[in-house]
Every structure is written in C-alpha cells, then in structure tokens.
Design goal:
The chain is built from 28 helices and 16 strands. It is α/β, with parallel strands linked by helices and 728 residues long. The strands form four sheets. Strands 3-5-6-7-8 form a five-stranded mixed beta sheet. The chain has a five-stranded mixed beta sheet with strand order 4-13-12-15-10, with no helix packed on it. Strands 9-16-11-14 form a four-stranded antiparallel beta sheet.
Length: 728
C-alpha cells in the first residue's frame, strides 16, 4: 500500500537538503569523469561528453535509488572505471577517420556501459556475487593500485588540458603546465589526508565547496575571469554549452564499428573492474550501516542501472560509499535523497550546463588525484604490512606492468604470478593428513582375539597415507619420495602394502599420473603393493586415461579405506596361516576366553547352533536384543540403515568373533543390522539361557560375563589407539 500523503511529503522535505548536496557533489564528480574520458584527441567533444556524463549520473542515482536493496543507497559514476574506459576509447578512436572519431567515442562509451550492465545483471540473476572471493587477493590489490596510477595519470591530462605520455614527464617538469598541476595535486593529497584523518562523509562536499570559494576569491582578487580562462584554469570555453543531447541513429551510423569491436578484450577488464568495485563498495556500505545486503540483488540493480545509463550515453556507475554516507549523515536513510540528487544532475545536464564552463580544472583534477592517491596508498602502503612479501611483490608487478604496458597486460601478469605463487606455496603444504601403520589403524573387521594379536604384530607392514586437498606434481612428488625412502630402509620394518586414501582429495593435476606411474614401477623391485582407496570416479578416470589402473602389477583399487585395509589384513593373515596352524572356530574362541576349568565344554549345553544362509539377516536393526552370537564359520556384515541415506558398513564379522553383545547387555534395541555375506554357522546365547546358567552354574555365568567385558574392552582400546593416532 502507498504511504500516507503526509508521510510522503515529510520524506520529500527531509530529503531535500541532503539530496541537493548529494546531487551537486555528484554533478562535480560526473564532470570529472567526463573530463577523464574526453581529453586529448577527444577534447573537442568534451562539452557533449559532459552532457552524457551528467545525464548518466542522474539516471544512475534514480535507478539505484529505486532498485537498491537499502534505502539511502546512493549510486554514482566511478572514476576508477572511467579511467580504464578512457584508455579503451582512446585506443578505439586511434586511426579512425576524423569525421568518425566523435561518433565512435560516444557509441563506445554507451555500448560499454550497456554491456557492463547486462553482465552485472546476469551475474546477479545467476547468484554469482561470491565469485569475486575466488579472485586472488594480490590480483585485486594490483588491479586497484594500477587503477590508482591511471587515475593520477588521467588527472594530469585533465589539469593540463591535453594528453601527456610517460615520455613527456621530464619535459612536463620544466613546462608552463606545472603551474596548473601543483595546486590540483596539492588539493587531491590534502583531501586524502583529511578523509583518512577526519573520516566523516562531509569532508568531500566541504572540500569541493572550499576549493570553489578559494579559487574564485583568488581569481577576483588577483585577476579576472578572462585571465583565468586564458590561462587554462577553467574547463571552458566550449563551442556550445554542455548539455545532454540523445545519441541518434546518425551517430550510430557514423561510428566505426570495426574499431569498437576491436576493443572487446579490453572491455572484459572494465567488466571485471566494475564487478570488483561494486562488490567492494556494497560490502563497505554493509559494514558502515550495520545491515546485510543481498549482493546478488545489488548486482542486478546495478546492472539495470547501467543499462539505462548506457542508453543515455553515460559511463558506468554503481554504489558510491562516500555519497551514501553523506546522505545518511545529513538525514534519515531515504530513497528520496537519491531521487532529489538525480533531479539536480538532470537540471545541470539539461539547462545548467553553462555552469560547467566555470568549473576549475584544478578542482576536477584534484578530485581525480584524490581517488588515485587513495587507491595507491591503500594497496601499496596500508596493505604493505598485511601482505606477505611474495604477494606484495605481485601487487607491485601489476602496477608496473599497468604503467608501462597496459591494464589488460597487468591483470594477465598478475593472474600468472598469483597462480605460480599459489603452486609454490601449496607445494610446501603437507598433502598427507595422516600417516599411520596397520598396527595403529585397522579395518572394521571383528576378528578373533588371536587374529587381532597377529595383526597387531604384522600391522607394521602396512603404511597408510590419508591425502587431502588438490594434488599436483610438486605435492605428490614429495609423497612418492617419502614412500620410496621408507620402503628402501635397509633395517627396520618391511613395508608390504602402501595404502593411499583419496577420500579427501578434491582433484588432481594431469601430471600427478606420472608420479603414480613411478610409484607402480617401484612396487615390483621393492616388493610392496600400492592400494588405492576412496578414489572418486572422475579422478579414477583421469588415472586410467594416464595408464594407472588395476591392470598394472602391484596396484589394487578399493571403494574405501576400510575395504582396502581389510584386503591387506586378509593377505597378511593368509601368510601367517600358511606358516602356523591356527584354529578359528567357536570352540577355540571360547577356550581362550573362558577362565574356568572346562568352560567351553560346560557352555555347550547353554548355546544353540544356528545356520544362516548368505543374504539372510542374523540381527535386524530396531529389534529387541535378546541374544548374542559366536561365529563358528562364515562371514557377516554389520551395517547401519538410515532413511534417505546409503547403507553404511560398520564392520565385517569373521570366524571366531562375537556379535550382538552390546545390545544384549544394555537391553536397548539393536542399533544396526547384521547380514550373512556367506553361509554361516553361529552359536546363539539367549537371554533365557544366560538366566538359567546364572541359576545352575554361576561360576560359568560369571566367566562368560568377564569374557564379554574383556572383548568389549579390547575393542574400545583399539578404537582409542586409532583415535590417538589420528589426533597425533
């Protein structure tokens, strides 16, 4: 529903003064943006370019005030984007026929803004705001510091009234232009110092107003308007008064479209810079206002704003932190502030363009200098203490390349250096999360006490490496070297199995396959088997394409670490069984557990022999625990069944093991199911049988209870050992 008319009138009244101030400052900033773009060969188009910039500023304020997520958010044209756009436009018109230069420049600016808006809007719709977090921080820093350098260079051109290249800097120091540059540079530096010292949003408008008053006071006291104009201190005179005139069909027809399309690569730089700047500014507004903004929504709003801004010929714009804070400081957060500011810009664009002629060049140049110095100080001085030396070197490298080669080249160098720095840094990170032995960490197989004891002795033959992160050649090479050194030790334990777990690996570089091929070649001479576990299908396919798979001698693959360890343990126990005759039936288990004379034989009268076919359930999850079982022969699997989730294997239960004892003693419902994986024979001890045993043979019942306590304690001790090994 619409707000009451009285409330609406109050909001307009409250927003009037802040809106006029914000709009006036934005008009000056828009003039500085126009002066940045339309300089040098385009100086003759400055008056009309100013009209486009002023109208664009009004549209940006209007649309963002309407669509922005936070009331009181103020948008504005951005000098940091405009300075790169100025380079792109200058490149586009270079070599263009003289009668096409102006049309090409106007269409280039408008098209770039519309494209930026379309990309920002699409990014917002696709929820891509967080993608900026994946840009390397040194690249962002170098990107913005390089922009600061271009802003200062652009400010020199604005104040001098002509384009000045790096080769002309030495001549500039001895020229008459120096008198125009020093006051503007001093103003810009003073503004930066004041903003960083006082940290109040009113500093900017006070400086703008103060500079205007001081300039015109000095002009009237020490000279005249004509002398100021003749001395190059003012933007004017113009051949025609700056005002907005729409870009008509004839302008599009006169433009050199080949030159425009030739700048597509540089246009990508503008898109990235606008996206980075927008998200940085929106985040700053979030922090200062203490409220959350939907960054994807802000991208969409800025996208729409830039499309409309481009349609009136203006350059790109988005959230302006200082103007937003200024509007809030002067009144309550109110969308009307942006609307009033838009009206102020439109008035200057449509009927007040003549005032632009009397704006001092040093004011516009000083503002641009302040933007550039602020960026350079922030990223080359303030962040110097926060960045590691290597990352700071990347920032410096980007700035130097931007200064001497170009913006796109600087960004490319920055990305390449950051990628190399990441690879170098990551190669020093240990990709081995845990390095264990088979004695410290075992499979989830419930084995007989004798087998457990044997595995504890032989577990040293199993090396377990749990890897993590992303693997590339440098990181894997160190792992392979460490495996080779351990396997070649002339003294100490013999490594029979190298278990490499990939469960925590997110991806691999193609060169990693070469390292694993080397490991496979080492396996034969050094007499060990490579056991790969937890390899996801994508990575397994990469390894197979490179020739590393189960077909290689000494290489095995298993779905997870537990199955891989189970296979290694079974092989070790098979070797031991060939050398020593062990009995693994229930009789042997009971004889070893029962600590009373004839305990195993006495227990026979209380147990029931049960046969279970493969696939049948011995224990069903959720049922009453009224018995425990001793496995005489065969193999079973304990598994957890949760609704909507895959079945999880908890343990494999082999010959000579006890299963179901925990629920039997706690009296709780079964927490897992136990299924026969092969035909099995088990000895069932029921709750009624135990009760009868306690009445008829209490010593035997006590021995059974002690045996179960020892069994559970042993399993708990092994679990604690595994946890301790993982913590270490």
């Amino acid at each position: 529903s619409s707000p009451p008319s009285g409330d609406l009138r109050s909001r307009w009244t409250t927003a009037l003064v802040p809106g006029v101030i914000v709009g006036s400052v934005e008009a000056v900033l828009a003039a500085s943006v126009g002066a940045l773009i339309f300089t040098g060969a385009l100086a003759g188009s400055l008056s009309r370019g100013m009209g486009f910039a002023l109208a664009g500023a009004g549209v940006s304020l209007l649309v963002m005030g309407w669509r922005g997520g936070s009331p009181g958010t103020v948008s504005g044209l951005q000098a940091s984007v405009a300075v790169v756009l100025a380079v792109v436009v200058a490149n586009a018109v270079e070599g263009v026929a003289p009668d096409q230069v102006e049309a090409t420049a106007f269409v280039m600016v408008a098209s770039a803004t519309v494209v930026v808006g379309a990309v920002l809007g699409l990014a917002g719709k696709l929820k891509l705001a967080n993608i900026i977090r994946f840009v390397p921080f040194p690249v962002v820093g170098g990107f913005l510091a390089g922009t600061g350098w271009l802003l200062i260079k652009g400010a020199v051109n604005v104040m001098a009234g002509r384009s000045i290249g790096l080769s002309e800097v030495s001549d500039l120091l001895n020229s008459d232009d120096l008198r125009l540059l020093i006051p503007g540079a001093a103003l810009g530096v003073a503004l930066v110092i004041a903003q960083r010292t006082i940290r109040r949003p009113w500093v900017l408008p006070v400086f703008v107003l103060g500079a205007l008053v001081l300039f015109w006071f000095s002009t009237f006291v020490f000279g005249s308007v004509d002398e100021a104009r003749a001395g190059g201190w003012l933007l004017g005179p113009f051949a025609e008064s700056p005002r907005w005139v729409p870009i008509g069909p004839s302008t599009f027809a006169d433009a050199d479209w080949g030159a425009i399309f030739g700048q597509v690569g540089d246009l990508l730089t503008i898109i990235v810079l606008a996206t980075v700047g927008l998200l940085f500014n929106a985040n700053s507004i979030e922090i200062m206002n203490g409220e959350d903004l939907d960054l994807d929504g802000e991208l969409s709003a800025a996208g729409l704003s830039n499309v409309f801004t481009g349609l009136v010929g203006g350059p790109p714009g988005y959230h302006h932190v200082t103007l937003t804070m200024l509007g809030r400081a002067l009144g309550d957060p109110n969308r009307m502030v942006a609307y009033v500011g838009a009206v102020a810009c439109f008035l200057v664009a449509f009927v007040g363009g003549g005032l632009i002629e009397y704006v001092p060049r040093l004011l516009l140049g000083g503002l641009i200098v302040s933007f550039g110095v602020a960026l350079l100080y922030e990223w080359l001085v303030a962040f110097r203490r926060r960045l590691p030396p290597a990352e700071y070197a990347v920032v410096l490298a980007i700035v130097l390349v931007v200064a001497f080669a170009g913006f796109l080249q600087g960004v490319g160098v920055g990305i390449a250096l950051s990628a190399g720095l990441f690879a170098w840094t990551y190669s020093k990170t240990d990709t081995v999360k845990h390095r264990l032995t088979g004695s410290e960490f075992t499979s989830k197989v419930n084995r007989s006490p004798q087998h457990q004891s044997e595995l504890y002795e032989m577990g040293e033959h199993i090396d377990i490496l749990e890897l993590q992160g992303f693997l590339f050649f440098g990181s894997v090479h160190k792992v392979i070297e460490s495996i080779q050194l351990r396997a070649m030790q002339p003294e100490g334990r013999e490594v029979r199995f190298v278990v490499i777990d990939f469960r925590r690996i997110r991806g691999i570089d193609s060169s990693v396959v070469l390292s694993f091929m080397k490991l496979a070649r080492l396996a034969g001479p050094l007499d060990f088997t490579v056991v790969m576990t937890g390899v996801n299908p994508e990575i397994k396919n990469q390894l197979q394409v490179g020739g590393f798979d189960e077909s290689l001698p000494g290489v095995e693959f298993f779905p997870d670490l537990d199955h891989g360890l189970e296979w290694c343990e079974d092989v070790l126990l098979g070797v031991a069984d060939a050398q020593v005759d062990h009995t693994h039936d229930a009789q042997h288990l009971l004889s070893s557990l029962m600590d009373v004379e004839g305990g195993a034989d006495r227990l026979r009268q209380y147990v029931e022999r049960v046969e279970v076919k493969a696939g049948e359930a011995l224990i069903q999850q959720g049922t009453a625990a009224t018995d425990l079982f001793i496995v005489e022969s065969g193999s079973l699997t304990a598994q957890l069944e949760l609704e909507g989730q895959p079945i999880a294997r908890l343990a494999r239960v082999g010959t000579g093991s006890v299963v179901g004892e925990l629920g039997f003693y706690t009296g709780e419902l079964r927490t897992a199911s136990v299924l026969a994986t092969t035909d099995c024979v088990v000895e069932r001890v029921g709750v009624e049988a135990v009760a009868r045993m306690e009445r008829e043979d209490p010593d035997l019942a006590l021995a059974l209870h002690r045996a179960m306590v020892r069994l559970v304690s042993d399993r708990l001790a092994r679990a604690n050992d595994a946890v301790r090994a993982l913590i270490d």
